[in-house]
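User: Please predict the structure of the protein below. I'd like the answer in structure-token form so I can feed it into my own downstream comparison script.

Assistant: Understood. Taking the following sequence of 173 residues as input:
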Amino acid sequence: MEFYQGRDFWDEGEKPISGLDIRTAEAKLSVKLPKSYKKLLKEHNGGILKYPNIFIGENDKERFIIPEINGIDFEGEKNGVGILASKYWINKVGLPDNIIILWGDYHSWIALNYEGNIENPSVVYFYEDYLSDNEKWKQIKIANDFDTLLKRLFRGSVLDPKKLKPSYGRKKK
């Protein structure tokens, strides 16, 4: 396992975005985005991650893949793309109001949660609860802040090749 070390975050992504565009987006969203997220946007304005894996759930036992992180798309409010589309998705699927969506696939979402801390939001994972009649979305806090999320991202196998049994191949004739 190789954890993210502060460089080579993006596998591929959109063109960088300017500080002015970031401030404009913050004003539209009425939030301050985490500094480390803004720094990444200045490298690529969202894209596919080189370090897409994270452990979540009880005792961090479940491996989850975050394939990409959204950037700022000023058309996003209309077409459902990027962090500016957060309000659109919140209204469409019934997520809490105080979040900015970093990634989602309609059934699960990774978001900045500004509830209780408007300066340094936590990062949460929302997933559809098919078993509950009362609550559509369950949430798991996966990091106290965006910097902690970055430190927990990794790439590579979680299997130790030394502990794997040899495969059963065909016998050679």
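That's the full token string. The chain has a mean pLDDT of 88.
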